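Hi L.,

As promised, FAD-binding domain-containing protein:
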Amino acid sequence: MSTVAVLGVRLHEGARAPDAASLSAEYDLVVAADGAGSTIRTALAERFGTTVERTAPDYVWLGADRSFDSLTFLVSDTPRGPVVAHVYPYEPGRSTFLVEAAFKPTVDELSELFADRLPGARLLENQSRWSRFTQVSNAAWSHGNVVLVGDAAHTAHYSVGSGTRLALDDARALAAALRAEPSLPGALAAYETGRRPAVEHTQWIGRESADWFAGLADAGPSSPEEFLVDLVTRGGRISMGDLTADADGGAPAGTVVSGR
C-alpha cells in the first residue's frame, strides 16, 4: 500500500479545486501550492500583499530529444542579439531546453543556431509559447487558515534553478512548524519567519542572474575566460574568492558556454 493511502490522503486528479472561501470554511488548514499563477493567492491578493512583476527578456520552454550530461548554458551571438539556452536533463534521452532572447526566434531558427550542440537531435514543443518570467512576492504568506508555499508564495528566476528546492524546503518547514507550535497562527508565523530570509536571498540572486543575462546584448567584447568568470559569478553565489581558492582553476561542473 502506498504512503499516500496509509496516511489517508485522497487525491482528486484533474479536478478543479473549490474557491478559496469554500476551502477555508471547510478545512482547518488550506495549503495553496498552485504555482506562480495561484488562483487561491489571486483571490486573496490584497490580504497577502501580492506583487507580480514580469521581467525581460522573453523566453520559451522547449524540450530536446537528447540527454545532456548536466546543467548547460549555451549562448549564440546573432545580428539581432544573443540567444541563451538553459539546458538540463530530466530523463534518459530527454532534456529541458529553455531559450531566452530579446527577439523571438522560431523553433527552426533555434535548431539552426544550436545545431552544433544538437547533433541529430530535435527541439520539442508542448504548448510552448514565448512569455516573460513572473516575479512573485507577498508581504504575508498566510491569511487566516490559508498559507502559501512554493511558487504561489514566491518565485526565483529560472536561471538559478531553485524553484523546486524552495518549494520542498517550504513544505518541510511548514510541516515542522505545525508539529512544533501549539496553535495554527503560531505555526504559520514560525513557518514564514523561518523561511523568508532564505527565500528572499535566493530571489535576490535570481534577479541579479536575470539582469546579467538580459544585459548580454549590451556587454562589450570579452575573452572566453572573462565571459566564463562573469557567468559563474553573476548571481553572487560564487565569488571571485571562491574561484581563486579552486585549486583546479576550472569552471564548476556542468557549465558549458557555446557560440560566444
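Residues 55-132 form a domain with the D-Amino Acid Oxidase; Chain A, domain 2 fold (CATH 3.30.9.20).

Thanks again for sending the construct details.

K.
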